[in-house]
Fold each of these.
Amino acid sequence: MKTRAVFLGLFFLGVLQSCDIVDGPYSTNAGGTPDTTEQVVRKILIEDFTGHQCGNCPRAAEALKAIEELYPGQIIPLGIHVGFFAEPTSSGNYTADYRSETGNELDQFYGNSIAGLPNGLINRISFDSNPIVQYTDWSSKAAQLVSLPPDATIDLNPQYNEALRSLQISADVAILTTLSDSLHIAFYLSEDNIVSPQKDYSLTPSTIVDYTHRHVLRGSMNGTWGLPLSTGTSFAAGSTLSSNATFTIPANWNDSNLHVVAILFRAISKEVIQAEDVKIIN
């Protein structure tokens, strides 16, 4: 259940987080085995590395939107502004800065801007030994993954105090297949529908003044690489674990368009096991 609740009390500035193991399976049938009657699917995280002065980047955004429409409810999109093309100018059309510490760290780790924008990551999986995927291949790579049964589900519950701009997110992670690995969970914040100029080489003049930037990565609530889901390295099917984090929303972010994106991934390979998205204000 994804609901909005208003909570009282001040949260400390910065980030607080915790993880707890919940005993027993998240749901069982009469025979004591996990209840699979509720349909669950594998969600695919597609990270679009972009920049507002990248004239070819609108094509990648269009490709991502088409994939979202092709697999409704299964695609978790992120627009990550990085590199030279994301740098703001001192005047003119491109004074906005949509870069983030989290995006910069991801770019440094994977080398997306060096490879030439636009490009992206699909569940941070290496295809042919390379995690960077050109946007023209996003659809075919996503098609390989969407029909696979999920290994876990994530249920997100945001609690947001609009007056204090204080956000708390709690996540219940249900393990569906036995996993033997160290798992981390990261909570990212994305802002949708930011209207701001974008360069587009297909047009003359090449600047779209009122371009809508979608799913813009703003930062992380618990670090770029998140925190361990638990101290263990083995997770039995049917078990559940919980994690939470708190954050104070900066005044210049539009909280009515903010989403929490939860990413569950293998700590060493970084491969995404499951992702989920929830809007903080419904």
Amino acid sequence: MFVDWLFEASYLRSFLGLPHIPHFTTLQKFTHRINNSLLEKIISSFIVISGTKHIFVGIDSTGFTITRDSQYYAERIEARRKYAKLSIGGDVLQQIICNIRIRRAPTRHDNMNFRLIITSTSNTLPLSVVTADKRYDSEDNHWLVRDGLHALRVPARFEHVPIWRTYGEYRKQMKRSYSKVLYNQRNKDETIMSVIKRLFGEHMMSRLTRMQNREL
């Protein structure tokens, strides 16, 4: 897809100084050789060149199938479909991904990636607001964002549980009141995920684990 797009993007070819359009296998070889940490730096650099001063972070996750088997086929052969879980931390105002984490155990809780994503994103630019859905609700996360990074956080889970039975100072504050206008900006994370899947599909083309991670 990228190679086909280069035929139309004459301004980009001129900027990069490409005498001719490379074959798609060139990108595949490049993917084999590039370092994962360099890829992460490239991803985080997009928010820097956008000119923003503070990041309005939204955190969310989604699954990608490792095989191209359809759900119908998997059910017919009674096979369990394998997934890789992609967690992103993105600037929801500009809809730019700032940091990602990938794991191979989708049954484990998404909360395990929260600290890694938030800390790595804050190392790129200061954070103004942090929003995430209720699955990321824990007092440790509240302390990290409110005291360590001085940003807002997510609403507490279990709305039916009274405040006096809710554990944690910050979780009780979220129970009393929080800005729903700011929290609803988190939905743009789902927009980012939707765009990715509509462009590239829900399955990965690579077969090796390290290549699948780089593809994601």
